[in-house]
Amino acid sequence: MSAIDWAKVRDDFPLLRRQVHGKPLVYFDNANTAQKPAVVIDAVDDFYRRYNANVSRAVHALGSEATDAYEAARSTLARLINARSNELVLCSGTTFAINLVAYSWALPRLAPGDVIVVSRMEHHANIVPWQLIAERTGAQIRVAELLPDGSLDLDALDKALDGAVKLLAIAHVSNVLGTINPVREICRMARKRGIISVVDGSQAVPHMPVDVAAIGCDFYAFTGHKVCGPTGTGALWARREHLQAMPPFLGGGEMIKEVSFEGTTFNDAPYKFEAGTPNIAGFIGLGAAADYLTTLGLDQVQAREAELLAHFSEELSKVDGLRLIGTAPDKAAVVSFLIDGAHAHDLATLLDLEGVAVRSGQHCAHPLLQFYGVAATCRASLAFYNTHEEIEAFMAALTKVRRLLG
Ligand code: PMP
């Protein structure tokens, strides 16, 4: 047991005090987006109240304060994943980050005969950009398959990574199954064969210590709103040599050194990839979120969530007719389930009336749901600020809902 007073931590999140349909909110949709601590809300508020200005463009006091805060946020975020700040491109989220790699790294390099390996458990954000690039370049997509429990089949992956493969796209943690992939081992496999690895860290960075240097990947993407930061923020980490070799993705202000009609010279990385006015307030908020999580300690967060997951799994195992989708041994606190005779949407709708927020549907992972032969699942995803009492409340709500569904 950790020494942290988790009830006090929960008090940092104003929204968690509200009621929904007259019941105390049980927010179990953290894989979708996380709630924000007051320090993040205050950081955004403070920016707009005290020093709102554009970054890198003005020499006046507000402009310098905004630029300093924005760059400080970049450094804090870089530290969160053990990276250098000149390797961190700030962008709107994982979707943007992966598209940046697809269009700037892959599009100019891939050709017919090349293969992109994508795992079966990927979010559409780590599938569709590769399909678009495959269409444009004549490269092929190859699927890395899963074992029935939702772990990646590492033997099959080993065989799939043959000489034609140029790029491997893999989730660190699955947003549907909760599976934690051994990305260090996987990226080592890829690197030994000269294959570029792109890791989707959307569901990892909020829940465990992440060290991109130790993972040994080439690119690592994550999203700010799942890390207790504002929406419309995220980052792409890349090895410096890739950033230097890649052409810009979007053109415009900030990403240039000099523009003339004879030709334009580009700014250094990471600015070369940050055209236009960024979400300044959002990144200042995200910096505050990264500070908050670092102070709490991501190892503590991970231990807390493991403890909640153990309790939740134990309770769910007592429910007749409940099928878990994703039972890998190494799992984050994301629980997808189905209940005999009940549609996932009906379950989620009725749970909402009890104050319980879960997600139902395909979770932007159609190929994964096809693998399990299901049209939709209910997904409960927990965070460190959830409580054992909320798990009890969820179970009581589920019992009631099942009775209603007959
Ligand atoms: N990958 C994974 C694993 C996700 O869970 C999500 C968000 N559901 C994304 C990518 C996309 O993130 P965003 O919409 O913030 O770009």
TrEMBL record:
Enzyme category, top tier: transferase
UniProt cofactor(s): pyridoxal 5'-phosphate
Pfam (any one): Aminotran_5
Keywords: Pyridoxal phosphate, Transferase
Catalyzed reaction equations: (sulfur carrier)-H + L-cysteine = (sulfur carrier)-SH + L-alanine
Keyword Transferase: yes
Keyword Transferase set for record: yes
GO biological process, one term: cysteine metabolic process
Protein EC: 2.8.1.7
Entry GO MF terms: cysteine desulfurase activity; pyridoxal phosphate binding
Aminotransferase class V domain: residues covered: 26-394
Function: Catalyzes the removal of elemental sulfur and selenium atoms from L-cysteine, L-cystine, L-selenocysteine, and L-selenocystine to produce L-alanine.
Similarity-based family: Belongs to the class-V pyridoxal-phosphate-dependent aminotransferase family. Csd subfamily.
Protein name: Cysteine desulfurase
Taxonomic path: Bacteria, Pseudomonadati, Pseudomonadota, Gammaproteobacteria, Lysobacterales
